[in-house]
Write a structure and sequence with these properties.
binds adenosine-5'-triphosphate, mainly alpha, two-stranded parallel ribbon, binds L-tryptophanamide
């Protein structure tokens, strides 16, 4: 097969304000990868409509994700940022993959099982075939690297299986892509139940930190994060999930290792440790928030999506 240029592709759903897990598991890596690769970042509105959406809210969420990408450091002048539904190749190729993918593969997807729950007969068909659309997103760009958090690894495996099955049946067509995962931060846990992933769909607002949270509120959320009663700081996901989660967040933000963070904090009280972690989160979020609030009022955001659409179309078509 001809050697294709290496390319990064990733997508984020416009389903509400992004949280610290989205930032550390995905968006921070979007920014790091853009120094090394050509990158294509997509606001995946067609994935969002697999569950009911309010059209007005969806539109403002799309702009919110776009502004968050740019505020976090994605360079829209060098990289492509666009809205999925503006490039018809995604749904066209998804149909082809609907015919290549197997119902058994989709039924095994953990995210589908979680989201459908006991309601499997009554969820949209889109929710079930969602991974085929995700595969189309990635494979239409012959992407080699896909930065995603841990929860998307299974969907990426399915994307690889689809590429391999298609290539075996019809001849070499698609690149088989690889997940790109951060060393730390691929799975940020909930602050109120650190055995579960941080998720904006949680009812308890103290369980997550949103990129746009008021900074005093951020400090309070970290202060009230669930820990344990041992009063000793070390990394042990099984027995000390809360402390381990805070160490992970801190290491990911400071781009260092968990071991280095443990040796830094080992003699501190939980209270002082939490204050330091909170300060690091605030320091990371403050410039993002400032840039975001300036950008979101800027009428040229639409033009950024238009340019991205034209560039994306040329590759995907
Ligand atoms: P929802 O909360 O509605 O399930 P989400 O928070 O998972 O959505 P997505 O748009 O589905 O948001 O995810 C965007 C990116 O963020 C994906 O790459 C996903 O893997 C990553 N991500 C989501 N949650 C976390 C988390 N807790 N830790 C690390 N990465 C995460
Ligand atoms: N399924 C992903 C969002 C997503 C995506 C993609 C990620 C849609 N298409 C392509 C990477 C590459 C999610 O729910 N986070």
């Amino acid at each position: 097969m001809t050697k294709f240029q290496e390319r990064v592709f990733s997508g984020v759903q416009p389903t509400g304000t992004l949280h610290l897990g989205n930032y550390l598991g995905a968006i921070k890596n979007f920014v790091e990868l853009q120094n090394k690769y050509n990158c294509v970042y997509c606001v995946v509105d067609q994935h969002a409509i697999t569950v009911d959406q309010d059209p007005k809210e969806l539109r403002s969420n799309i702009l919110e994700v776009l502004a968050s990408f740019i505020a976090a450091g994605v360079d829209y002048k060098k990289q492509i940022i666009f809205q999925q539904s503006s490039v018809p190749a995604h749904s066209q190729l998804a149909w082809v993959f609907n015919c290549v993918s197997r119902i058994g593969w989709l039924n095994r997807m953990t995210q589908f099982k979680d989201k459908a729950g006991k309601n499997k007969e009554n969820v949209s068909v889109g929710l079930m075939v969602y991974p085929n659309l995700m595969a189309a997103d990635i494979l239409a760009y012959l992407a080699t690297h896909v930065p995603v958090g841990d929860d998307q690894k299974q969907h990426l495996e399915l994307t690889r299986d689809l590429a391999i099955r298609f290539n075996n049946t019809y001849g070499d067509t698609f690149i088989v892509p690889k997940a790109y995962q951060p060393k730390t931060g691929a799975k940020i846990k909930s602050l109120s139940d650190p055995t579960k992933k941080m998720d904006k769909s949680s009812e308890n607002q103290k369980s997550y930190i949103l990129l746009l949270d008021d900074l005093n509120q951020v400090k309070n959320k970290i202060k009230s994060a669930v820990t344990d009663s041992e009063a000793k700081i070390y990394y042990d996901v099984e027995n000390k999930p809360g402390i381990s989660n805070l160490l992970t967040i801190d290491a990911a933000l400071l781009k260092t290792t968990i071991e280095e963070r443990v040796s830094h904090y080992k003699d501190m009280s939980y209270q002082d440790f939490k204050l330091c972690v909170a300060d690091h989160i605030v320091a990371a979020l403050k410039p993002i928030q400032e840039k975001y609030h300036a950008l979101i009022k800027d009428p040229s955001l639409d033009a950024i999506l238009d340019t991205g659409r034209d560039q994306a179309k040329m590759i995907a078509h």
